[in-house]
Amino acid sequence: MRHAVVIGGGIAGLAAAHRLVATGLRVTLLEATARLGGKLMTGEIAGVQVDLGAESMLARRPEAVDLAGAVGLAGRLQPPATATASLWTRDALRPMPKGHVMGVPGDPAALGGVLSPEGLARIAEERELTPTPVGDDVAVGAYVADRLGREVVDRLVEPLLGGVYAGDAYRISMRAAVPQLFEAVKEGGPLLDAVRRIQERAAARQQTGPVFQGIEGASAPCRTPWPTPYGPAAARSSPRRPSSV
After folding, report:
1. Which of 8, 84, 68, 35 is nearest to 221 (CA)?
2. Model-level pTM greater than 0.70?
3. Where are the transmembrane segments (predicted)?
């Protein structure tokens, strides 16, 4: 039997090991620390257990949800507790405007108080702008800034998109991170109209389920060695991460 070694027990390493096991390989997972999960961890703040990494996944993208089902966790998927999302902007805590796609707005009327008068005026100019090319891909932040202004990116898109993908909105791929927006802007026309088309199509499909889901009880730390219910794999804790295998 062929043998594969996966270095690193974060979510990427665990997903890679799972996929390799499914092909029939014997898999050894090497992790330098005493726990699995990488950046997915919990800690204590003021006596309360809180997530220090990502606490949920996008439920309307199939990859993570399908992976949870494949390893027997489908029955433990739960939406986060209901709470109203807010932004701290312009010296006040303000409700997250409704009618957006990953922070990209579709209704300027909902942005009062969140954006400055100058920011709102910049959005109003979009219909007069020449088309912004997207090619095979474009960064979300760069495209939105070109169409609606940097203030929209810095106050709306970056807090949400950058938080979900742990990256810089000006460098995050629209095609990979927000594919429905990428396809909509390729159709042409103002960005505001593209966002509204996405919302109308979602409503037509009655896409009303939770946007995010987490795994109930997943905050408990997972320490090596660990059982693998899906095939001949082994996990080992290594005192240091090898540079090559």
Report:
1. 35
2. no
3. none
